[in-house]
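Below: protein 1.
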Amino acid sequence: MAGGLDADTGAVQDAILRVVNSTIQPRSAEYDAEGRFPRENLKLLAEQGFMGMTVPEAEGGPGLSYLAQTVVVEALAFGCPATAVIYEVHNSLHTEAVWRFGTAEQKAAWLPKLTDGTWIGAFALTEAGAGSDAASLTTRAEREGRGYRLSGRKMFISSAGEAERYLVFARLPGTTGPDGITAFMVDRDAAGVSFGRALEKMGLHASKTAEMLLDGVWVSEADRLGQEGEGYRIALQLLDGGRIGIAAQACGMLAAALARSRRYALDREQFGRPIAEWEGIQFKLADMATDLEAARLMTYEAARRRDDPSVRRLAAMAKLFASEAVVRHALQAIQIHGGYGYIREYGVERILRDAKVTEIYEGTSEVMRLVIASRLLREPEEAVWEV
């Protein structure tokens, strides 16, 4: 098995690939063309037991490994990258937040609806002026009685208006930087919540992305996740897992690029021979397969070490390598297909459109390099031998 999966995780991979190949992949192009949110896919995944996979058994979940969830994200991205990112945000950035940081009462109230698909969860950290520098966010949380009033604007929110629940990060009055940032759970239908128009994106058309506006939205203390001022730490810890998920999404798309390119190269003939017999094509396929194997190994290892102190570096490395590899090889897949690669019917131009954002969201490639370098310079024993 690729990446040395254990038998249990391999069984999860086999199960999700059956669902992807039988149902999710065949309707993926339709969702993309129509820009339609794949609600049916999410319902199917919930019915099949793939939502909330890492929720501990003590909290009512299946208690599966982070690696098992990672191979599910990868398989979903192989068939429908938009479904993969919706699923990844729901599980890694929202549901995981509840079971990691919620109180017993919050877990009992929220986790069942997140694991059975009643609720889709979203993550609202980014703002127009606070992207890579998330600590500069300006959304306010004003104390009022036994709760707070939230006011501000969140940008580039995946599943905006479609998800039922939002993990919103806001700043307490009189604070700057990471200090005072606090996390809150907000209902889609709460008074004062509204959403901008769906943004017209290069790719991932079935994953709705829009602005979230909060106009004096009241949330109770019971809807605060963690303590006051802990929001930034919570966000960073969740993003470690989210970056593993985006690396897995990139691996899935790279696997699709390889599969489509291999099949086309075997079928397409020029000068009386399949183009797969030409050295120029073979080298492209070999590089693609090699980078896919390397990306999987890095991603799976980061997933295995999700709770290890070294995970921030490993997650950044996996996301950086996998995302840049899929963009590079999506271009090569188009080149292998020639003129047909430029046509929507053959599916590889869409891989490029969908893949590009993996170098941007949940930490740009530049930020990933900063994370890696800062760890390297501070703790060299993690990555290099001393001389």
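Below: protein 2.
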Amino acid sequence: MNILLVEDEQKIAEFICAGLRAKGFSVNHCSDGNQGYEAANQNSYDAIILDIGLPGRDGLDILDGLRKNGNKTPIILLTARNELGDRVQGLEMGADDYLAKPFYVEELNARLNALLRRQEGKPQHLLEVASLQLNCINRTLNCDGQSVEMTSREFSLLEHLMRSPDKILTRGQLLEHVWGFDFDPCTNVVDVCIKRIRRKISSLEKAGEMVGAIESVRGTGYRFSSR
């Protein structure tokens, strides 16, 4: 698979390139928005990984230009943790997915593989596991026509779990991804947030019918069951 990476931070670019090449991807890297836009227009790629904050032409401008020119190459946006508005705008402009920094290259690899598998399927802003559907644009949790709104933290936490169904994620990993590296590791905010999400999932359940479950893994963390 041939991937275009447009990322100006050298360390992040090296980290991504090394990780994806180890997974068998061929990666072409551009560190400038103008160069990235030109490369995307002149060459054929299976997917584009596009940072929003770039020198020259920024990521959203590149995205807008590509989509207006009829370029349908799948695009994953890389965003800073606090760029919620840009993520939503990017999805509405035609991006297929987004990933907030910092992230693990394994997660980027999984997102790429899922995106490439589902190019002809459902829009990437809809994440579905078991009977639950998470809408990444309007930030709602849906099941059989019913929906509940999520807070920013609830959404980020549930999204992270649903993107890795049946995988155990430690409290430390969840804290790092949703609250940041410098958050107190002894806090119970993960557990409190999980309780709120479980209540919202329960509100969507029909009598005697499970629609999806966050399972506790004693002494470790949580996982979202796909069964």
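The radius of gyration is 18 Å.
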